[in-house]
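Q: Predict the assembly, please.
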Amino acid sequence: AQSVTQLDSHVSVSEGTPVLLRCNYSSSYSPSLFWYVQHPNKGLQLLLKYTSAATLVKGINGFEAEFKKSETSFHLTKPSAHMSDAAEYFCVVSDLGYQKVTFGIGTKLQVIP
Amino acid sequence: EAEVAQSPRYKITEKSQAVAFWCDPISGHATLYWYRQILGQGPELLVQFQDESVVDDSQLPKDRFSAERLKGVDSTLKIQPAELGDSAMYLCASSLANPKMSGYTFGSGTRLTVV
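A: Predicted assembly structure:
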């Protein structure tokens, strides 16, 4: 069985300040982990993925995430928020043994000018 | 950049009517997924295909929903009859057989409103 917990349903930051979106997972197998972003009325866009290579993963638009097995976490960070980052972010775990994909409930990021 | 195509983008239908959505995955992607995303929630898997075969439809309400991928390429998701609670975004995604290489690529979705 696998699950994903996004610890915050809403995060609000000021433009230019750091972003931290938290994600914890559980998986019976060595997981692959993804972060997706969804702007209003749009599909999901892949930000970055962890697939058992480097634990610090760099993605698009200045985002990065670090896989910490001991903490079962895969938090998403960005040094400086931009207005265009306002969107909903989903943490996803994939149990590749069975190709099961599980989404978190999402975190809405608000960026204040 | 290759995209997953979905149509229509928006659909309004009356309850008890039939409705169908279409998805064309990225060429060469063997795995195709249909997700339902209710407003304010994360996507929920409805059905997963590997080529033309269904590998997971445990969350598909089979009394009213059906999905097919006859030639292992594009796919159709049908609802008959539609109910008010079916109002949601329906997302299609595709991946290589091993998603480690490609991740999952999502289409822009079909926003269904049942009135």
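Chain A is about 0% helix and 60% strand. The radius of gyration of chain A is 13 Å.
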